[in-house]
Write a structure and sequence with these properties.
It is a multi-pass membrane protein. It comes from Picea sitchensis. With about 300 residues, this protein is an all-alpha fold. It has one domain (about 1-309). It is about 85% helix and about 0% strand. It has helices at about 1-30, 35-60, 70-95, 100-105, 110-120, 125-130, 135-145, 150-175, 185-205, 210-220, 225-250, 250-275, 280-309.
Length: about 300
């Protein structure tokens, strides 16, 4: 009974942090007027750096896994740059696109993962698995045509972020595949986040040169911006922490199923909160994409079971 309640609480925390960070990012970047996605991402990565250190080194929630070589560090730095690009792209897209459409495009991650895995590792899936990707892509095309708030630049950034997220997944499996180099997601974040901060700092200073002055000016008018940034950045870390814990106490498949449900819930909640216009065509496209993702997950699971058997 106690373990069941713990798991339910964990899933609730995962849902809350994932949906919360998406909605708060959208509110800050689009509704509140804090138009600094690079700086916001740097705040996220700074919080991830500090909180990862506290959780692993001080609280010892998971054993610390040291970096064993310069080569391993280079691999982690590469993953960090791609991870950073995916988060920045996602945050920029939220400036221009409603959360509902952002989530529809983000749901195409399996398509990019399958394509990149084939191109980079020549890893082939069963034809049925590839066939299930057709509704994933078709749904986004339909949703794009029926999206009242469609913005080309926002769409490009959202697609780029989705592709970068998939690329990180594929490269992580290749670069950190040996037993001596494998890191759990919490240790990987511990090393990736500070590198991301170092990459984002010069980019922020060049592309958002007035961000500190503007943030201070905003804080003088409304001190809540400070609380928003601190809470939002902390929440970004808890997304990663709960991802790890849900996978640990349930399974990767459970996390995948929850991810599909999370997208649907985020869409409904964002429409209720931000009142962004939606069309029947757009919602049909998004529904088709989600159904395609579910079919893809099931086809891939069956294919893997056949290989194991």
């Amino acid at each position: 009974m106690a373990s069941g309640l713990f798991t339910i609480g964990l899933v609730g925390a995962w849902f809350s942090s994932n949906i919360g960070v998406i909605l708060l990012n959208k509110y800050l970047l689009s509704n509140y007027g804090f138009r600094f996605p690079l700086f916001l991402t740097m705040c996220h990565m700074t919080a991830c750096s500090l909180l990862s250190y506290l959780v692993i080194v001080w609280f010892k929630m998971v054993p610390m896994q040291p970096i064993r070589s310069r080569v391993q560090f280079t691999k982690i730095a590469t993953l960090s740059a791609i991870f950073c690009a995916s988060v920045v792209g996602g945050n920029i897209s939220l400036r221009y696109l409603p959360v509902s459409f952002n989530q529809a495009v983000g749901a195409t991650t399996p398509f990019f993962t399958a394509v990149l895995a084939y191109l980079i590792t020549v890893q082939r899936e069963a034809w049925l698995t590839y066939f299930t990707l057709v509704p994933v892509v078709a749904g986004v095309i339909i949703a794009s045509g029926g999206e009242p708030s469609f913005h080309l630049y926002g769409f490009i950034m959202c697609i780029s972020a989705t592709a970068a997220r998939a690329l990180k997944t594929v490269l992580q499996g290749i670069l950190l595949s040996s037993e001596g180099e494998k890191l759990n997601s919490m240790n990987l974040l511990l090393y990736m986040a500070p590198i991301a901060v170092l990459l984002l700092l010069p980019a922020t200073l060049i592309m958002e040169p007035n961000v500190l002055g503007m943030t201070i000016a905003l804080a003088r008018q409304d001190v809540k911006i400070v609380y928003y940034l601190v809470f939002n950045s902390t929440l970004a870390y808890f997304v990663n922490l709960t991802n790890f814990l849900v996978t640990k106490y349930t399974s990767a498949l459970t996390l995948q199923v929850l991810g599909n449900a999370k997208g649907a819930v985020a869409v409904v909640v964002s429409i209720m909160l931000f009142r962004n216009p939606v069309s029947v065509t757009g919602m049909l496209g998004y529904t088709l994409t989600v159904c395609g993702v579910i079919l893809y997950s099931e086809a891939k699971r069956r294919s893997n079971n056949l290989l194991i058997g």
